[in-house]
Amino acid sequence: MSSSKEPMRINVDVTNPGQFFACCGLLELADRFWNGAEGWFDDGSFQLQAITTSTGDLVSDLMNSIARCGVTNTMTVEQTARLEELAGMKGKDHLKNPAFEVEKKGLEKLRREEPIVLLDPFNLRIDWFLDELAGGNRFKTWAGQQSVLQIASVMKHATESILSRNDRSDRWLNQTQSGCGLPFNFDSDLGAQGAAIDIGFSFDPLTASAATRIESTVRPCLELLAFVGLQRFRPRQLPNENRFIYCLWQQPLSPAIAHPAACGLLPLGENRSFEFRLLYRTKYLKSFLPAIPYLGDFHE
Mind listing the pLDDT tens digit of every residue in the chain (300 residues)? Predict the structure, then answer.
């Protein structure tokens, strides 16, 4: 097999950890869709190349597949149907049988928290936010009462809207949209804007009414692809510190090889490394902060 056509180029700010992990997520999806892909960082961009003998417009095909793929979670058809049935009951029916309310709350918890699945053609299960053993859940940026399925679904819908009207793949990570819902907050440009305490009030209570709602502008492609990227690609944490390291790689690598390269575990020459911190907006809500060049494991 051989490389197909010219590489796909995506503009990237490598000091934005959300954009870095979005590139990793795009590599993951391209590898699954193209049945083989390699990616690398080069001069302000991420290059992505199919390793295939296929013909046609591979970039367009990938773009359309990301836009059209379904998003769900691992709840069974029976569980989903039962939740809909319980949600449709009148309040007096729940009062007659308290077990209904207990069952409903249990199913609602599953709907909020179960692993996410990107359907055909990717068939990718995303559950890093539940990984306590390897520490993947430390990058969970949303609170327990927020639904990961809802966030992923609205970011996917907004991504579909952007991709349907824009064929410039190099701009994917910088395309913005307003009023599309709450993001994951992987985009460090959002995290750097400060928490509610910095602004003086919280936006969340204002969302219930259109008259008071303050619509935020987000970059949904960045948010969705970073969510995908964190499934395989994780930064290295400095022991007992809120400092996380990721590394650029400058030669074509498949996801399986790029994975250890991204956290600096492969001797690939003078690859640039960056560190970032998590902003704790509340006890449960977090954001990614902008990265700076990594200069070593010093302690403050």
Answer: 334 567 889 999 999 999 999 999 999 999 999 999 999 999 899 999 998 655 567 788 898 899 899 999 999 999 889 888 888 887 666 656 778 888 888 888 999 999 999 999 999 999 999 998 888 899 999 988 899 999 999 999 999 988 887 667 788 899 998 888 889 999 999 865 544 444 444 555 545 555 544 557 899 999 999 999 999 999 999 999 999 999 999 999 999 999 999 998 888 777 799 999 999 988 788 999 999 999 876 655
Q: List, as one string, the DSSP characters of 243-281.
A: -EEEE---S-B-HHHHHHHHTT-S--SS--EEEE-EEES
Interhelix angle 220-229/17-34, rounded to 10 degrees, is 70
